[in-house]
Specification:
By secondary structure, this protein is α/β, with parallel strands linked by helices. It folds into 2 domains: 196 residues, NAD(P)-binding Rossmann-like Domain (Rossmann fold); 84 residues, UDP-galactose 4-epimerase, domain 1. Helix content is 36%, strand content 18%. It contains 10 helices and 13 strands. The strands form 4 sheets. Strands 3-2-1-4-5-6-11 form a 7-stranded parallel sheet, sandwiched between helices. Strands 7-10 form a two-stranded parallel sheet. The radius of gyration is 19 Å and the shape is globular. Bound molecules: uridine-diphosphate-N-acetylgalactosamine. Uridine-diphosphate-N-acetylgalactosamine binds next to helix 6 and strand 8.
């Protein structure tokens, strides 16, 4: 099986590539290293250093693929806001090209950002799509495009990632999630800053559970093509068990030596208060459930 992982040098992509290799796949990664790090790509992966907006690099990467996991994106809300024309090229135009050019199934990394401020919690896949900002809008457009594919099209699905965390998420990067920042600071005796009162909730999902969801939907599309229940469909990738930042800090505090210093700053502009997904659709369609509890996930990062 020849597998292409776009954005394969990134946080999720490198975990996926390692798992695919261990399953015996031949893995190609295309990554422009704007956020990824080739150091995280396991030995044995065929690496193409290039941007998905470059048609020649992309078609070279896609050649001979049996399945494409399309994870490459400008995955930062502020960066997309700063350069919407560029993020349109990367997140939107290149994604459209991948879906239309692929002669094989495509699994697209969508995002909980497409829901915007929730009007109903937990958020199921039929929650209104109301993204705030370019990043969410671009993800929403590709997600909708996939959900409207017909039976003659490329087999494809969209996975809507909630707050993914795990080893290898660079805490110093502006792409980093709050957990990697908190863990890094607490384990180095540095102060944690909570934006707002810490009562905001997030649905944190461990990267190994995300990889499992990618593999299950990918293999279903490979085996059954457009007859797969994943085809032209979207799935929330989340635990359904939201936690507050204050709870996160409590868990971290009880597992590091010494006190964790916490300061509060004003809430970040544009932040949503509560986010909690419903993953019933994925669980009832495939044999998937989140396996890593937040406590176990945090502990593995602290040890
Ligand atoms: C995530 C994505 C964002 C967008 C959004 C869509 C990341 C890093 N962010 O934002 O790109 O897709 O989902 O809903 O993937 N916080 C602190 N202290 C810190 C850092 C963060 O208190 O040092 C707070 C932050 O203000 C927010 C919460 O932690 O209330 C989570 O922040 P985040 O950036 O990890 O994730 P989120 O859901 O806001």
């Amino acid at each position: 099986m020849h597998v292409l992982v776009t954005g394969g040098a990134g946080f999720i992509g490198s975990h996926l590539s390692a798992k695919l290799l261990s399953l015996g796949a031949s893995v190609t990664v295309i990554d422009d290293l704007s956020a990824g790090d080739m150091g995280g790509v396991p030995k044995g992966v065929n690496i193409i250093e290039g941007c998905i907006t470059d048609s020649a690099s992309l078609s070279n990467a896609m050649q001979g693929s049996d399945v494409v996991f399309h994870l490459a994106a400008i995955a930062s809300v502020p960066l997309c806001e700063a350069d919407p024309a560029w993020s349109d090229k990367v997140n939107l135009q290149a994604s459209l090209e991948i879906i239309s050019a692929a002669n094989c199934p495509v699994i697209f990394a969508s995002s909980a950002a497409i829901y915007g401020e929730p009007v109903e919690i937990p958020i199921a896949e039929n929650h209104p799509i109301s993204p705030v900002g370019y990043y969410g809008q671009q993800k929403a457009t590709i997600d909708a495009n996939i959900c409207s594919l017909g039976p003659q099209s490329t087999p494809a699905c969209a996975l809507r990632f909630f707050n993914v965390y795990g080893a290898g998420q660079d805490p110093s990067s502006q792409y980093s999630g709050v957990l990697s920042i908190f863990i890094d600071r607490a384990s180095n005796g540095r102060q944690i800053t909570i934006f707002g009162d810490g009562e905001q909730t997030r649905d944190f999902i461990h990267v190994s559970d995300v990889v499992q969801a990618l593999l299950l939907t990918g293999s279903s599309l490979v085996e059954s093509g457009v007859s797969s229940p994943a085809h032209a469909s979207s799935f929330n990738i989340c635990t359904g068990s939201p936690v507050t930042l204050n709870e996160v800090v409590d868990v971290i505090s009880s597992h590091v030596e010494g006190d964790v210093a916490v300061s509060h700053e004003e809430g970040r502009e544009g932040d949503i208060k509560h986010s909690s997904g419903d993953s019933t659709k994925l669980q009832s369609t495939f044999d998937w459930k989140p396996e890593t509890s937040l406590t176990d996930g945090l502990l593995s990062l602290l040890s």
